[in-house]
Amino acid sequence: MSRWHKNKQSAVTSVSNTDNFSQAVLNWFAVNGRKDLPWQQKTGAYSIWISEIMLQQTQVDTVIPYFRRFMQQFPDVNSLANAPLDSVLQHWSGLGYYARARNLHRAAQVLCEQHEGQLPQNLEALCALPGIGRSTAGAILALAFEQRQSILDGNVKRVLCRYYAISQWSGQSAVTKQLWELADKHTPMQQVAAYTQAMMDMGATVCSRSRPHCDLCPLATGCQALAQDIIKNCPAPKPRKPLPERQTRMLMLQTLGSGDILLSQREQQGIWGGLWSFPECPAEQTAEHWCAQHLGITINKPDKKHYWPVRQHCFTHFRLNIEPVHILLDATESQKITDLLVTQGNSLWYHPQQEAHFGLAAPVAKLIQQLK
């Protein structure tokens, strides 16, 4: 187990090559740091890796239940590498940013194929794995192996920007370069794991984005943004552009009698890659025309189709306006679809009451819940 899991006293001991900044952070962590997170209770680099990927762009409280379920199903790299991607995506469903799950699965396979199932203890080799960038690699090496590696996630960027009164957007290349230099400057030679966790904890719980608790911050006396009363301006938010909007129709094709609904697996690339979803038709095409063209069925009877209210799903770069269309099928129509799509293996009939053993796109899961 990493040394940062030891008692509080070890973290307050004076450390060689530790400046005032990092010593203050370590002292704070000894008393206030989070030491009971589920991935801190497990040994080995595997759980650290899984948690760091889950924590990318996702808050700790959201990650905890997903991490527990994921580790129960995939307790080691071999079980993850050998699992069907559908199963991996199922245990990721609802966490978002599904490329992370696909990258985890592929990285586990690479580890088994090229690294004997072990995470390499080398920054460059770690960064070569799918889904692992410089900061994530640094966190894994620091937390799991006590290597002196710097990290620069969103929390650390915010702490450094405020301490040095850097008011530009942290995503600018020049600012990012400066922040990496500062991160490396303050990373101590020893107790690296404790320091790394402390910086993440401080950014999340004390130096938070909207309501920082400067009165509780161990760096307050040297914080230039606090001294200049510009905390809220450091760092500047990412320049926002109006999000474009896209339109689609989701066809909820459901058989009369059995109540089964048709789901199709999406392409591995693109939004919801590899997840299961309703068939979609472009907004400019009617559901009737699409079904006749692609499925060979007629749905002109008013009592067989119902248009549900449009709902919006937000992605990072656009908003998707979804118009769900509930379409009831008789036995002949459902058999046509079975012969045309289901026998090919990329579509299936799914009953809303069943437990899904595959990943569902978030709005699809909500619509299925309504169909129950």
UniProtKB/TrEMBL annotation:
It comes from Candidatus Venteria ishoeyi. SMART domains: ENDO3c. Gene3D superfamilies: Helix-hairpin-Helix base-excision DNA repair enzymes (C-terminal), Hypothetical protein, domain 2, Nucleoside Triphosphate Pyrophosphohydrolase. The gene is mutY. This is Adenine DNA glycosylase. Its EC number is 3.2.2.31. Belongs to the Nth/MutY family. GO terms for molecular function: 4 iron, 4 sulfur cluster binding; 8-oxo-7,8-dihydroguanine DNA N-glycosylase activity; adenine/guanine mispair binding; metal ion binding; oxidized purine DNA binding; purine-specific mismatch base pair DNA N-glycosylase activity. Its cofactor is [4Fe-4S] cluster.
